[in-house]
Write a structure and sequence with these properties.
CATH superfamily of the largest domain: FAD/NAD(P)-binding domain
Radius of gyration: 24 Å
Largest sheet: 8 strands, mixed
Number of domains: 4
């Protein structure tokens, strides 16, 4: 089904002329999750995104669907319970995207360490029980100092006590977004990128009834009318609320900036994702992840007040991450010149929540008192001996006291919470959260949307099980991923692709691989392999890819993890897109500059 620059024009016309039940503003993971569920429910749905889909926060995460084991530092079982269960749900509805990959956590005896060898085992056991993986091949285990160093000889040995190994999932964040968007489009949603809300429409009673929008490509402005409008703009939540003159404009969000850096695996080789304290005694933890012949690491976590649309990597960000990496891998001696690529994004933290996965929590950072800790450990031991119930464990957790003030710990100290609010004029705002929770956040919003449509407009909609609502490319048995990927690989091989290229396509496009290989009939574009040609043509025609940056940064990871191929891809990708999209010379020149700027920014050319 076409989903392209051409169909975008038709969609914009429909958005102008079709009264909607629901208008979603924001095409990141939150809006995409609401869109797929709303369209599947039979709700007449539109979605507008002012940039490319996932261009903001949702393509700039740590690229994991992780269970939040850090939250167990303060025994926030509720958050971890939700997160690890959602992790499994996401793998079920998008089985070609998140993949299980055990995480190594080296344990150091240092001030402000998150865990010691005793507490990490307790945390991992509880984590596995919540995730339902205890007793499986993915169950956690601890390893000795020598075993840690056998796995990662480059790790610093001083103060290393051992390590824990537990299950997490690697992810392709931008592809998770586009696959949700594509499925919503196929289900009948009216979805357009590069359309910006520039005003909020109200009826005579002051109720929101749509938005005044601008096509940022043509400059044309128009109105979109809808019974309900939902704000899913992530860090931009307050900026959209500022357009609505009927609202109190007290800020809801406190965005923080997160930076990741990429080097070749020859400069820093890790066998599996690794997660450790920063070494700066600041309560932060750092991920180091192998991917596609590269290694990336992050993240920073600093308050941000600059240009939301264009956050940048600063020297301080680089210095912080290089210090952390070179502390833990003292022989690596990674420097600025080794960085091949980078990305930076904003986390949509809720201001009243005041914390994230990475920054160690709110003001109350006191350790748990010994008495409370001992009671908890006994209860956990009793639970494992089947002498206590889960309720007993949760009750013990709820009564944990800090050693200083003896106050009950608040989950919001460490939680990346989300919020669902109905504003004074009826605007719905869905804010906060993280990529792992997107499906559950959307389900909560959909329940409110369905109820409101029925109550206020007598609009009926279907109840759906969003835990079974598979995204585009994910329509296959999630318990049989490897065999299914082999099947789609064979389809691509039969179409004439080499085995390695065929496997890459299958893993990128999942059950859409059969549609991708239909583009083989036109032959390879000049300067491009057959794999790259059909991937690009499919992406332009069926993934609303409008610029070379869309393709090379978000539909694929070329800019991030294949910087050494960009010189070969650069001109052929631009030339083929110019042919497909009928660009004139000025447009082609503008697209070339945009790509060059994106590559230079990713490579940190200005800092170098």
């Amino acid at each position: 089904m076409a989903f392209s620059a051409n169909t975008r024009q038709q969609t914009i016309e429909h958005l102008q002329n079709t009264p909607l039940d629901l208008l979603i503003i924001g095409g990141g993971i939150t809006g995409a999750g609401v869109a797929i569920q709303a369209t599947a429910s039979g709700i007449k749905t539109g979605l507008i995104e002012m940039q490319d889909f996932a261009e903001g926060t949702s393509s700039r995460s740590t690229k994991l669907v992780h269970g939040g084991i850090r939250y167990l530092k303060t025994f926030d079982v509720g958050v971890v319970n939700d997160t690890v269960k959602e992790r499994a749900v996401v793998q079920g509805i998008a089985p070609h995207i998140p993949r299980p990959f055990p995480m190594l956590m080296p344990i150091y005896d240092e001030p402000e360490s998150t865990y010691d060898m005793f507490s990490v085992k307790i945390a991992m056991d509880l984590y596995d029980k919540l995730a339902g993986v205890d007793g499986t091949q993915y169950a956690n285990y601890t390893i000795s100092k020598d075993e840690v160093l056998q796995r990662e000889p480059g790790l610093k040995s001083k103060n290393l006590k051992g390590g824990g190994v537990y299950l997490d999932f690697v992810n392709n964040d931008a592809r998770l977004v586009i696959e949700n968007i594509k499925e919503a489009d196929e289900l009948g949603g009216l979805i357009a990128s590069h359309v910006k809300a520039v005003g909020v429409l109200h009826d005579d009673n002051g109720k929101v009834v749509g938005v005044h929008a601008q096509d940022t490509i043509s400059g044309k402005e128009f109105d979109i009318h809808a019974k309900l409008v939902i704000n899913t703009t992530g860090p931009w939540v307050d900026k959209l609320r500022d357009l609505d003159q009927k609202l109190d404009h007290t800020p809801m969000m406190r965005p923080t900036k997160g930076v990741h850096l990429v080097v070749d695996e020859s400069r820093l080789r890790v066998p599996q994702p690794t997660y450790f304290d920063s070494g700066a005694h600041d309560g932060r933890m750092i991920f180091v992840v192998p991917r596609e012949g590269k290694t990336y690491f992050g993240t920073t976590d600093t308050d941000f007040k600059g240009d939301y649309k264009h956050p940048t990597v600063d020297q301080d960000d680089v210095d912080y991450l290089l210090a952390a990496i070179n502390n833990r891998y003292p022989d690596a001696k990674v420097t600025l010149k080794d960085i091949e690529a980078s990305w930076v994004g904003l986390r949509p933290l809720i201001a009243t929540n005041g914390s994230s996965d990475y920054n160690g929590g709110g003001a109350n950072t006191g350790k748990v008192s010994q008495e409370s800790f001992d009671k908890l450990i006994k209860t956990v031991d009793d639970y494992e001996d089947q002498q206590a119930t889960r309720d007993d464990v949760e009750n013990a957790i709820s009564k944990l006291k800090t050693a200083h003030a003896e106050e009950t710990l608040s989950p919001s100290q460490v939680s990346r919470g989300s919020a669902l609010d109905t504003e004074a004029d009826g605007m719905i705002t869905l804010s906060g959260g993280k990529i792992t929770d997107y499906r559950k956040m959307a389900a909560g919003a959909l329940a409110l949307i369905r109820q409101t449509l029925k109550r206020d407009y007598n609009v009926d909609s279907k109840e759906i099980d969003s835990k079974k609502l598979q995204v585009s490319g994910g329509h296959f048995d999630p318990t049989n991923v490897d065999d299914t990927m082999d099947f789609y690989t064979r389809i691509a091989v039969d179409a004439g692709l080499p085995q390695e290229d065929a496997a890459d396509l299958a893993n990128r496009f999942g059950s859409n691989t059969g549609r991708v290989v239909t583009y083989v009939e036109e032959g390879a574009a000049e300067g491009l392999s057959l794999k790259e040609t059909i991937s690009l043509r499919y992406s332009v025609n069926e993934e609303l890819t409008m610029t070379p940056v869309d393709y090379l940064l978000r539909r694929t990871n070329a800019i991030l993890f294949h910087a050494d191929t960009l010189a070969q891809l650069h001109d052929p990708v631009i030339n083929e897109m110019a042919r497909l999209l009928d660009w004139d010379a000025d447009t082609k020149a503008a697209m070339t500059k945009q790509l060059d700027d994106a590559i230079a920014e990713s490579e940190l050319a200005a800092l170098k």
